[in-house]
Amino acid sequence: MISKNTVKFIKSLQQKKFRKQENAFFVEGSKNVTELLLSDFEVTHLLYTDKYFEEQQKLIDTCKGECFQVTPKNLEAAGSFKTNDGSLAVAKLKDNSPFDIEKGELAIALDDVRDPGNLGTIIRIADWYGIKKLIFSKETADFYNPKVLNSSMGSFTRVSFFYTELKDYLPQQQLPVYGAFLEGDNIHSKTITEGGIILMGNESKGISDVLAPLVTQKLTIPRFGHAESLNVAIATAVICDNFKRNS
Question: Which of 54, 113, 157, 227 qualifies as a FRET site for 69, CA 20 to 30 Å off?
Fold first, then answer.
């Protein structure tokens, strides 16, 4: 039987300050929980229904955290989903550990991408194109925001990331930095096969004036219609596709 205090604890993790304070986050829904259990994240709590138990008994048995067989109403009370007949899990945050980008490797850097849905989708896009490393400005949305994790559809378990001051980090890598600009070179006419860092900017302002001078190759996605701009996640997918198509 799950206690009211445990439900209250999980509910508190919807807020960033409590995620930081408790060094924990939660995911919900069968897809994300299954991906979490299969990953190297340290799971501390697992809540599951009869339905999820029937589907994933062997996987549940591998969980080293506290396990509770609950009703869908228990899951809905603890999480953010209006309906959830599967599962919910709590895991520990990973350390914010910097890493370098290897020569020939492709990574994505995000400059002040604020929308959780966009961040989650970009994580999923990175996973689709086999891009393992993501670097975020300190103003970018929180990786562990439930909306980010839900939008990633489990891909959050297969990428490495950390938050930093991009103005200091990018020059240290001594790699090409590809930035999306309206006045950049047509990406369709470029054959880019080497690695580097794809830099994507804020949803409304684009790449900041501080980071723009660090971009070594400005790229643009040609427009054939009349839309004013592309969503940052869609633009990321188009750019990644052009890189991988030529690799």
Answer: 157
